[in-house]
Amino acid sequence: MIELLFSSVMRGLSREVAAQSRPDSQLETGGCKAGNRLCSSLALAARNTHLAMNCDICCTEPSFCRDCSCVLCCKSIASSYSFIKCEAPVSEGYICGHVAHMDCALRSYLAGTVGGSIGLDAEYHCRRCDMRTDLVSHVARLLKTCESVDSRDDIEKILGVGICILRGSRKASAKKLLNQLELAMTKLKSGTAVEDIWKAEVDTSALPAGSFHGKDALEVTNPQTTLDVHIISNQGSESQRLDDEIDKVLQALRKSQVSEYKIAEERLYAQKSHLLTLYKQLEEGRSQLSRGLSSASTSALLDAIVNTSDRIRQEVKKLRDMEKVAKGFGKTPKGILKEHFTLEVED
Questions:
Q1: Do residue 300 and residue 176 come from a single domain?
Q2: Per residue in 207-234, pLDDT tens?
Q3: Is 36 in the same domain as 121?
Q4: How far apart are CA 269 and CA 283, in angstroms?
Q5: Were both Cys, which of 81, 139, 223, 302 would link to 162 (CB 3.0–4.6 Å)?
Q6: pLDDT tens figures, 60-113
Q7: Residue 35's domain spans which residues?
Q8: Rounded CA separation 43/36 (Å)
Q9: 186 with 69, same domain?
């Protein structure tokens, strides 16, 4: 879902990047190695507050520029909101300094919220230095940039980037910021004037009783606009409420799965121990039989061996039935859950 959404968001940037990445034969020595006219390396050196670390891997390539070549795809980036620069400190006074397309980072599961072993939560993982950067503050800067942009198309692209980065995060700050982005996006798509998108909503619940009468009455010049803003404002709070609700469901699901796993683990290993005990009894019986006992003792021993063998077959069959929980308790026959795991399942 993130990949599809971000593809549409970033589609408009590809033409801009291509135009900026044309080689320039007149670039001076020491300029951008990738030939990018808008590369930050062409700016005054005084603007650089931190020195970048020495890099003898990607930066040794003749057409790779640390300041504008994506560390993931090696193509030039636009000097805009389409990339992330890793400013993680790698040694005293030095930062990583490598950049990456945000699109590439999201597609490579190196940005945003990613589960599994990498475990990102609204973060960026730099492939070059293996350091992480919190993206909440990065998106906050994008939102601030939006407030000074006049183009509705550019605002939509920037908001889309921020939404893709924050969606799915469990951080409270990320959720709050995501609500602001989604509210702004809703206003934008509903036709709200650009200068009105960033205006704070009025919380009427905090107004004293009677404020809508007499000299304290609020002047409403456009009832339809007021209604639209009220609906949009509710959507932001509804998004937060739904996020909290889904989080609680997922946490409950995780707890139930952990509980089911513990039950299955306990019962399966108990069955294994029982089987090993029977196998031990069978071996002892066979060992005694090989010693040459009296006919009466031999007959009794044979009966015991046969009985133990039958029990082993029954317990092996029971274990095979119990192993069906591998599909999950929900897909395991109710009879097996009741008989072997002492679980009552309602119809």
A1: no
A2: 444 443 444 433 444 444 444 444 444 5
A3: yes
A4: 21
A5: 139
A6: 787 888 888 888 888 888 756 788 989 888 888 788 888 999 889 988 899 998
A7: 2-196
A8: 12
A9: yes
